[in-house]
Amino acid sequence: MKNTKKIARIIALALAVFMFAAVLLYIAPVAFAEENGQEVTTEKKEEEEKKAEEAKKKKEAEEAKKKAEEAAKKAAEEAEKKRLEEEAKKKKEVEAAKKKEEEEYRRYLNEMQYLGDQYVKQIATMIEQFKNTPGYVGAVKKLQDFLSSINPRAGVDPNAAKAVIDGFKKDENELKKNPILMGDENGNFNANNTLTRAEFAVVLARLNKISLDGISWFDAAMKFAKESGYMKGDDEGNMMPEKPISIAEVVSVFVRYKEFTTLEGNTLSLPANHWAIPAMQRAYVDGWLTGINDPQNCDRAITRGELASMLTKVRQIKIDRAQINEEIVLYKRFPDVDINNPYYYDIIVNAN
Questions:
Q1: Segment (H or E) for 72
Q2: Euclidean distance between CA atoms 88 and 95, whole angstroms
Q3: Nearest 10 degrees: CA dihedral of 295, 297, 298, 302?
Q4: Cα-flanking dihedrals φ and ψ of residue 259, to 5°?
């Protein structure tokens, strides 16, 4: 009995131990599980919070980046806008300056054109006022030449026009006449009259600009003609001043005056023993006898008109008939010599 109780106590103790163990086995996993679950939840939460923080920071960074990009874009746009505005402003200023310059240039051209037109009017007035006035012939011609040179498309250069006007002045040399031939006391030329050796000696003196003042009108001339060797007298040395001078004598004197050599030949068929053949041949070749009536009859007295014709050739004067006609008021003329006279222009150029 005693053993039974002991066994029962042992069994009861074992059962209690078993029950305790069972309880432990049941409670421990649950407690562990609960504790472990709590730790897992905390870590997860912390992880989630960390992720959320990271996401927040990332979002904030992205937003900051976006804001920075937007700010940079806006700044760039503002800078570009400002650049374009500055560029447009400068372009506008350049265009305005160019327009102003063009306007000023047009104004300048208009002023120059107006000034040039005024000068042209002044020049035209001057031409009309001084045309055919002794001493101003050359000056007027310069004005006329200037007007002729104006290009209608280019207009008038006012500076050139003013220079022409400023240079306009009287030429005293135009008033200095050196007439070789003169008329009589009545102002007539007497183209068909002959002239004496003394009268021809005066012509020679005028050609050589010898003064004939102080003595009789032909003494100085005859003395010059003899001493220079241009004219020769007879065998006794007489100069025969009152004797009419012949074509042959005039030709011989001019050949000496020009210091020309005589030529061989007898184109004019003069008498074989004629003393003036070499000089007449030279005159013929040089064209001096053009305008001389029947030069073969060279011993006849030369007329004043024929002498004027020969003087033109000897002096190598080129007659500009158009100019003479235009400026005729400047020339000395003779009432007995009109434009129909064959020696009209020869007389004018040798009498002025």
A1: helix 2-130
A2: 10
A3: -80
A4: 60, 40
- For helices 197-207 and 219-228, give the axis angle rounded to 10 degrees: 70
3-state secondary structure of 246: strand
The SS3 call for residue 126 is helix
CB-count burial class (<10 Å; 0-12, 13-18, 19+) for 350: buried
Strand partners of residue 155:
151
For residue 50, the tally of other CB atoms under 10 A from its CB is 10
Evaluated on CA atoms 33, 39, 40, 42, the torsion sign reads positive
- For residue 86, CA distances in Å to 73, 80, 98, 158, 298 come to 19, 10, 18, 43, 101
Residue in 90, 114, 111 with CA at minimum distance from that of residue 98: 90
- Digit-coded pLDDT (tens) for 131-186: 767 678 788 889 999 999 998 888 899 999 999 999 999 877 665 567 999 999 99
Euclidean distance between the first and the last CA atom of the chain, given in angstroms as a whole number: 201
Whole-angstrom distance, CA of residue 304 vs CA of residue 194: 6
Single pTM value for the model: 0.55
Quick check: 226 and 233 in contact, CB under 8 A? yes
Query: Sign (positive/negative) of CA torsion 136, 137, 138, 140?
Result: positive
Number of helices and strands in the chain (H, E): 10, 0
Q: What is the dihedral of CA 323, 329, 333, 339, to 10 degrees?
A: 50
CB 262 within 8 A of CB 279: yes
Phi, psi of 348 (to 5 degrees): -60, -50
Two tokens, residue 138: 């050359």
| Cα–Cα distance measured from residue 98 to residue 91, given in angstroms and rounded to the nearest whole number | 10
Tokens of 223: 């003395």
pLDDT tens digits, 190-216: 999 999 999 999 999 999 988 877 567
Residue 151, SS3 per DSSP: strand
302 touches 195 (CB < 8 A): yes
What's the rounded mean pLDDT across residues 30-39? 60
Task: Please give the distance of CA 243 from its chain centroid, rounded to a whole number.
Answer: 63
